[in-house]
# Entry
Amino acid sequence: MRAIENHKDVWANPSRRELIEEVIRRREALVSRSGALATWTPPESTGRRPQDTYIVDRPEIHDKVDWRSPYCIPMPAETFEMIVEDALLALRKKPRLYLTERALGANSRYALMVYTVTDHALTALFTDNMFRPIPPDIHCSHLGPRPFTILVLPHDKLDTQKYEGRLRVDPEKKRTSDIAIVMDFVERVGIVYGSAYLGSVKKLMFTVMNFLLPDLGVLPIHGAANVGGTCDCALFLGLSGTGKTSLSTDPERVLIGDDEHGWCEEGIFNFEWGCYAKMIDIDPEKEPDIYWAVMHEADPLEHGAIVENAMIYPDGSFDFHDRRLTENSRASYPLSFLRNADPRGLAGHPKVMFFLAADAHGVLPPIARLEPEQAMFWFLMGYTSRLAGTEIGVIEPRSTFSRFFGAPFMPRVPRDYIVLLEENLRRYGTKVYLVNTGWTGGPYGEGRRIDIRLTRRMIKAALLGELERVDYWEDELFHLWVPAECPGVPGEILRPEATWRDKNAYKARAEKLAHDFQREFARSFAGVGIPNKVAAQCPG
# Structure
């Protein structure tokens, strides 16, 4: 491996304990009262940087990538090779390097080896938390024996003059950007240069898996999965901040994974080994399992949870309500830290899928049943409201559409994902519900966030089949089937209009959102072969 050739001090696959010791010794993180590690990033690294994320454009993959997507920014191979050489030169100058050899994919038939080379022990520990051990039968993987290699230089910056005209101009700094996150699907090499946000490493590899797996007939899913006592698997699809981690971490059900999965002919499999949960305003009563995973007391050398960008006081206690640095405070921890999780990461075919949308308009019902054509439409559109903090520069929530509930990480042309979902829904009879985890009684700033305890009760009703035994009414504007009642849930909240004082304001806001759907569908999906029966589900 060129990154470590002739380097005098390379730690290859150090133990977890050794990595934690190294993080503490180098002061890459502080030890909190619980024993978890606390770290902070520079202001430009408190979230993902989609404008600085690139895909190397090569003939072998050109027609498979949806270059119309704002998240698929092409980079010429020549520029990428320049960045690789700069990264290698920078790594050779570091006093010590860390190499971790891990994998993604709990189903070894679809596992991908991931080699990470970095100069920061904290990054290596993050990969130990998040990526899986290499399975003994990795030779059976359909993805082949060649690993994907990531070079991570979180605190170095690119020479802006050298890349003038090759990288974007940062409007805030009024010069060429000095940060680049790049992936080469053909050569299986990735670069994280200048971003200290740990999520940059995780999401780079998620995007890689989402590109590779459809060629093998596997549907990649930006969502969580859990299993009940009767082995009934449920999927929770949604963007960051919609509640995937919170809703899927249910003490009555076993968690398979909280974010990234594949759906193959054998069922569901987790990509990861750990979780990367949002911590802002976390409530130990409403989200006890996540809170315990991060905050349980343990010897620091046995703990290893990483708390990123949260306020900490001199006594070592956290304040997860402090937003002064970012709303995107995160915690990385192994799945085994959850008291009710299955680290094997495997489940059967899902009985129910939940599409989660944090609707800041406050006009969507808290739960609605989707027929197959409706499910295809909402999967395609991936509506939610972008919450503050998950991306650089996003301060106030705004309405957004993110295809397949993960547009930044779904690089292929839309039909590749749609065909696989259609086939799986038809083959396995999975039921689909749309769940609004956002606002009711008014838009953000006027209404209130739907209580997660009520959302949990509606989720439970769907899983138990209780919503199959009630009457439904049709929301004619959004083409949704809404239950007239749900056990344990006040009837009023099921009808969004009933929660608004000003009914005219509700109607105007609902029509505005419907218009947003129409405009987005016309802009992004007109003329790309979307079936008429799916297009007919567009609100309005």
Remarks:
- Residues 503-525 form the longest helix (23 residues).
